[in-house]
């Protein structure tokens, strides 16, 4: 029975991390399929590569993943970059015979986070080998919730992450906290921003540290975009 429960928990965790990677998406969004490229997605949805990158905070257009959900229409109140033929896309303005798009703005984070632990960042995000950041400090260092949310996973069923917590903040954002020595909250519990939820440890790691991830629509994204400078 315990093995069955463990399998269900792991399956639930994978589903959370994938953010329902095979389900339908809302209008204005597109789920990446095998063989897709940003260029192809932009072309088939009559927009530009620059728009797709800007609307989704992509720094590397080659780093999209199968199952990832991308915005393919401009958010309300934003503008689009003119396409290569000079015809303006949605949200741009025209002046005489010329067409000029509004200056693209970097999309702001949808959540505001606090640092989940004190310590030194020993590894940054690269989207491939590192899906988050690693913060090193002494064993037992408090780990806190980066934002208010609900604990959707608390356990050690995912290999390589040790004792891990996943907190869901809304329908788009999750944060994950791995390698903890002790977990102080349980699944289903609501936690407040800054509340201690674990103690830093070295479970499934060769050193004491917190591995911290931010997931947007199921895709890992650079936590530095959401954390205040320090």
Written account of the structure:
With 230 residues, the chain is of the alpha+beta class. The protein folds into two domains: 69 residues, LysM domain (Membrane-bound Lytic Murein Transglycosylase D, Chain A, Roll), CATH 3.10.350; 106 residues, Glucose Permease (Domain IIA) (Distorted Sandwich). It is built from three helices and 14 strands. The strands form three sheets. Strands 5, 6, 7, 8, 9, 10, 11, 12, 13 and 14 form a ten-stranded antiparallel β-sheet that branches. A hairpin with a 2-residue loop joins strand 3 and strand 4. Helix 2 crosses helix 3. The protein is elongated, with a radius of gyration of 20 Å.
Shape: elongated
**Radius of gyration computed on alpha carbons:** 20 Å
C-alpha termini separation: 47 Å
CATH domain class of the largest domain: Mainly Beta
Structural class based on helices, strands and sheet pairing? alpha+beta
Assign the CATH architecture of the largest domain: Distorted Sandwich
Taking all residues together, what is the mean pLDDT? 78
Number of domains: 2
Compact overview of the structure:
Helices cover 14% and strands 28% of the residues.
List the helices and strands and how they pair.
Layout: H1 2-18, E1 29-31, H2 38-44, H3 49-56, E2 69-71, E3 93-95, E4 98-100, E5 120-123, E6 133-136, E7 142-144, E8 149-155, E9 163-168, E10 173-183, E11 190-191, E12 196-200, E13 209-216, E14 219-221
Helix pairs in contact: 2-3
Keywords: Lipoprotein, Signal
Family: Belongs to the E.coli NlpD/Haemophilus LppB family.
Protein name: Lipoprotein NlpD
């Amino acid at each position: 029975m315990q093995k069955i429960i463990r399998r269900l928990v792991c399956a639930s965790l994978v589903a959370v991390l994938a953010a329902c990677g095979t389900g339908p998406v809302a209008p204005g969004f597109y789920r990446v399929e095998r063989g897709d490229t940003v260029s192809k997605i932009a072309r088939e949805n009559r927009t530009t590569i620059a728009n797709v990158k800007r609307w989704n905070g992509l720094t590397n257009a080659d780093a999209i993943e199968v199952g990832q959900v991308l915005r393919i229409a401009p958010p309300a109140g934003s503008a689009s970059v003119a396409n290569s033929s000079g015809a303006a896309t949605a949200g741009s303005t025209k002046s005489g015979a010329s067409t000029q798009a509004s200056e693209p703005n970097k999309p702001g984070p949808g959540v505001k986070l606090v640092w989940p632990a004190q310590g030194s960042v020993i590894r940054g995000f690269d989207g491939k080998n590192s899906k988050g950041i690693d913060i090193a400090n002494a064993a037992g260092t408090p780990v806190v919730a980066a934002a208010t949310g609900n604990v959707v996973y608390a356990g050690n069923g995912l290999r390589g992450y040790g004792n891990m917590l996943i907190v869901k903040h809304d329908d788009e954002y999750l944060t994950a906290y791995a390698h903890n020595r002790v977990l102080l909250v349980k699944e289903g519990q609501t936690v407040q921003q800054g509340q201690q939820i674990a103690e830093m440890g070295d479970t499934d790691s060769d050193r004491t540290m917190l591995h911290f991830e931010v997931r947007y629509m199921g895709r890992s994204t650079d936590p530095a975009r959401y954390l205040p400078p320090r």
